[in-house]
Design goal:
The chain is α+β, with helices and mostly antiparallel strands. The protein has 6 helices and 6 strands; from the N terminus they run H-H-H-H-E-E-H-H-E-E-E-E.
Length: 176
């Protein structure tokens, strides 16, 4: 769901930027000719071009708001906890996780494009649809499934761990 919202915000940002560029780059003579021919869009554009401060201010506010909202939504995928661990949304991109944690080396299966999300990493590492409390260690971190939504890995708790790679499956069975 977050990705859809982010895509809509990117499109909205593009619309704001495009309208600003279109207004600034339009020629007055061409707009005047179209306006004199009765084109209402040309009349509006000419009026905005002659008094651009309100329009450009609105565009800049719009672009700023899109940036703030995009950042807020992106941050919701990674919640820093007081103990130094992270609560991570399963739909977060694996690249964002690596950046956040300072990991440079690929995870197993990443170079083969076996997955693109943190939830996909969990499934790949465990070799099955996980259940809550399933965990594994890799790249110096401990990954524990803390919430499932049906077959979807919803939330993962990631904490710093300095032990070698290991996998621990809970005794419970997955129920959809």
């Amino acid at each position: 769901m977050d990705i859809v919202i982010l895509l809509l915000l990117v499109l909205l940002n593009g619309l704001f930027a495009m309208s600003e560029i279109a207004l600034i780059s339009s020629r007055n003579t061409r707009l005047q000719k179209l306006a004199s021919e009765g084109n209402p869009g040309a009349r509006s554009a000419l009026q905005l071009k002659n008094e651009p401060s309100t329009f450009l201010s609105t565009v800049q506010v719009g672009i700023t708001m899109v940036g703030i909202l995009s950042g807020a939504i992106g941050e919701m995928a990674f919640i820093a906890r007081h103990d130094g661990s992270w609560l991570v949304d399963g739909s977060a991109a694996i690249e964002h996780l690596k950046t956040r944690l300072g990991i440079h080396d690929p995870f197993p299966g990443e170079q083969e494009n076996a997955y693109f999300t943190v939830g996909g990493l969990v499934i790949h590492m465990l070799g099955r649809i996980p259940v809550e409390a399933d965990s594994f260690d890799d790249k110096g971190f401990h990954f524990e499934v803390v919430d499932m939504d049906g077959n979807r890995v919803d939330k993962i708790l990631v904490s710093k761990k300095l032990e070698p790679t290991k996998i621990k499956l809970s005794n419970r069975q997955h129920t959809a």
